[in-house]
Each structure stands twice: as structure tokens, then as C-alpha cells.
Amino acid sequence: MKEKNRFFAEVEAVDAKLLQASAAGKSYSLRQRSTDRLVLFALDGHMINVVGKEIGCGPDFIVCGELPPLDQPLSEDGWKLADNCLKIPFLTQLKLAGGRTFDSAERFAIRDFPGHMKSLIARQIRKTKSPEFSELEIRLKRLSETIQNHLVEMSELPLIGVVGFGGGFPGTGDAALCGLLLTARNMALGRRFRVDWYKRLTVELKRFLHRTGVHGRNWLNYAIEGRMTELQQHFFHAMLKDFECSDEIVVKKIAADQMINGTAFLMGVNATLEMVQAGFFNP
Questions:
Q1: Which residue among 125, 147, 204, 217 is buried most deeply as judged by most CB within 10 Å?
Q2: Is the pTM of this model over 0.85?
Q3: What is the DSSP secondary-structure string of 216-279?
Q4: Residue 171 CB: number of other CB atoms within 10 A?
Q5: Which stretches of 4-106 are assigned E, i.e. beta strand?
Q6: CA distance 118 to 105
Q7: At residue 179, does pLDDT exceed 70?
Q8: Closest by Cα among 160, 143, 237, 142 to 197
């Protein structure tokens, strides 16, 4: 039975990995707040997002039927994740086990090149040009050229140019790297495309996570582990099918998603697809 309270309504969904993490009994602090999202951080930098049901679930997310209005005071410190509950000081607790369990690590083995989606992504990126995105495009191209020349071990400077670059939470550079890594990972699972470079790039990326902020570190770690939001999972499921109509809908939704800095994410996806299109196929 779902837990109900007058501040957060019921818990509708929770990431399965967060349920496992609740055994550690970590304390968190509230560091960001909006009408549809609360962002909590532990001392070690681990992030939890408590979101409204319109956003959907994701890595280390808790989805509630509703969130308290902004005029409802909430304690900044003393939030505790333990025993399958999120304990909110002086207010209530959310019993996580009552909601739907979400698997943020679902796998997508992509075996066919998504030509329709590639065209739609490129068109969407062209629509949202800005000086920051133009600079990101240059930096991603520099990184892609290094990878295509089989010089992943020489990618240090191009990678540093992308990690932590730009504005947003996560920043545009970090969001693009998430798109690049998740796309390469899913194509590697399909065993048709030559994207073995992504594992070596992941090793390099781990060395430079300290160069970005706490949001970027969390989102990059999610991508390294293959973890995604529900919308990202819908996106890669659509990439598997590659039907033009459904592709167009999900590409537009991703681009508008501020949670993952959607347009920057698409630029990273596009970078991987362009490398694959350039001839990185297994015989």
C-alpha cells in the first residue's frame, strides 16, 4: 500500500539502486528546490532527485504524486535515507517500498544504424544554435577526431575541453558526454558497430571527473554505469525501432528536457552516430 502524507502525496516510483543504497543510512542536505524538483546532496557528493510525477523516474530518483508548495518551509539539513525511507526532518518520511520500482540500468542492444533518428537529431541541433552550442560542437569534433584516429590514449586535452564546459545542471559539456557514452555503450551491446573505444574513453573520463561540478559528476557516473532516466530509455527504445514518426516525438521531448540538458545530450548522441556513420563497423 502506498504511503500517503499531506506534503508529498504518495511515492509513485523509486530507482531500484536507491533502494539498495538506503541500507547505508546516509544523511543529505537540500541544495536546490523548484516547484517540481528537490535536489539533495550527501557529504560525499551523492545526489538524490525528489521529483513530481510529470518528470518521471531516473537514476537515484524518487517520484512523488506532488511536492510541497514553495511557501512550505523545508529543512536544509538532516534528511536521511535509511531503511527504505527518506526521512524529512520535522515534517514526515517517505516510505519508498510502496512505489513502483524503476530500473535505471536497462540495456538496449542497437544493431542497426538509426538513419531516421540521426537526421532528426541533426535537424533539431541546427534549430537551437547558440554561441555556447557552437563552441561545444567544435570541442566535440576535436574529441571525435582523436577517437577516429585511434588515439583515445591521446584524448586528454580534447576531453578536458568538454568536461565541465558550459552552463546548466549538468553543464552542456557533461550532458554531451552522457549522450556520447550511452549511445556508444548501447551500440557496443548490439555487437555490430566498432565502438570499443568507449571503454577506453570511460577510463580517461574517470580521471577528470574532479574538473566538473557535483551535478556533472553524478550524471557522468550514471552514464558510465549505463543508467538513464525514463525519457532517455524511451529515446533509446525508439532508436532500436527507428520509426520516423516516433523518433520525431521523442527527439523533441529530449531536446526540451532541462533535467538532462537535452539539446547538449543530443549533440553527444550525434557525435557518436557520426563516428559510426564514418565507417566504424565490425566486419
A1: 147
A2: yes
A3: HHHHHHHHHHT---HHHHHHHHHHHH--HHHHHHHHHHHHH-TTTTHHHHHHHHHHHHHHHHTT
A4: 24
A5: 11-15, 26-34, 37-42, 47-52, 61-64, 77-82, 85-88, 92-95, 100-102
A6: 24
A7: yes
A8: 143
Q: At 98, which amino acid appears?
A: G
Name the residue among 5, 156, 1 with its Cα closest to residue 66: 5
Q: Which cell numbers hold the place of 76?
A: 536544509
DSSP-derived secondary structure letter, 162 = H
CA R_g for the chain:
19
Length of the chain measured in residues: 283
- Classify residue 155 by its DSSP letter: -
CA distances to 18, 51, 148, 175, 179 from 265, rounded to whole Å, are 24, 20, 20, 5, 5
CA distance 226 to 50: 21
